[in-house]
Specification:
de novo design (two linked rop proteins); mainly alpha; 4 helices; 123 residues
Amino acid sequence: MKIRTHKELKVYQLAFEAAMEILEITKSFPREERYSLVDQMRRSSRSVAANLSEAFRKRRYEKAFISKLSDSEGESAETQVWLDFSLSCKYIDEGIHAELFDKYDHIIAMIVNMINQPEKWTL
């Protein structure tokens, strides 16, 4: 089966799901974190999915495709840092942290696989 849109990519679906989980979780964070931790965490998590969709549309050009995937990988790692801060500040518990951190580990692994084998994805 040929993938026709970015929404059919498993990595995109996982990234979108994780970003939505972060949106819900951060609603309970303290008000004083609204424009710092919450904003950063939401932006980086959403950027993972957004960069994946851009990469999919740029797959005609291998270097542009890899560049956008690299951006997505970086945003995934950034999101993991914000998760670490959230745990350290006791805004989330260890279970939520472990679940989301693991999800981003899987996302990163899928992105790295795409970066290492661009010929499977580029046109």
